[in-house]
Amino acid sequence: PVLDFGCGTGMSGAALRAAGFTSVDGIDLTPEMLAKARAKGIYRTLTLIAAEDPPPAGYTTIAAIGVIGPGAAPLELLDRLVAVLPAAGRLGFSFNDHALENPDYEAAIPALVAGGSIALTFEERGDHLPGIDIKSKVYVLEKQ
């Protein structure tokens, strides 16, 4: 199973399913977003969490698409998600243009890799919100 952390309305879960993930669990901070995700009928489970709750452990694949950035979850969430990954676990996440305006966001990646227990296995820039010309970088980290 893959954990869609900050699943929101379920758009990322739908993309995960379209990419071939058949068992997707979602968590989010608001009942309203979970209701929208539930209406899509694609999640195995949906769970409400509080911002201060630790991310659930036990997932070898976690996605946090459009979750970390200004006006959303703080950059510290990246460390919290990496911490719960098991060996060989993967974390896919994105930083949009607004996040990348702050150099701390992009600097967080080499800082994690420098520790030796995390590898950057994928990085690509592309459309985030094409209707308003916002792009993002998608990253995949793997815990060694």
Low-pLDDT residue spans: none
Overall strand count: 7
Helix content: 25-40%
> What's the Cα radius of gyration?
14 Å
Number of helices: 5
In spatial order, strands of the major sheet run 3-2-1-4-5-7-6
Structural class: alpha/beta
Order of helices and strands: EHEHEEHEHHEE
Dominant shape? globular
**Assembly form of the protein:** single chain
Mean pLDDT: 95
In whole angstroms, the N-to-C terminal distance is 19 Å
% residues in beta strands: 25-35%
> What profile does the largest beta sheet have?
7 strands, mixed
Structure description:
- With 144 residues, this protein is an alpha/beta fold.
- The protein is 29% helix and 32% strand.
- The protein has five helices and seven strands, in the order βαβαββαβααββ.
- It has helices at residues 11-18, 31-39, 76-84, 97-100, 103-114, and strands at 2-5, 24-28, 45-48, 61-64, 90-96, 118-129, 134-143.
- Strands 3-2-1-4-5-7-6 form a seven-stranded mixed β-sheet, sandwiched between helices.
- Strand 6 (118-129) and strand 7 (134-143) form a beta hairpin.
- The model has no long low-confidence stretch (mean pLDDT 95).
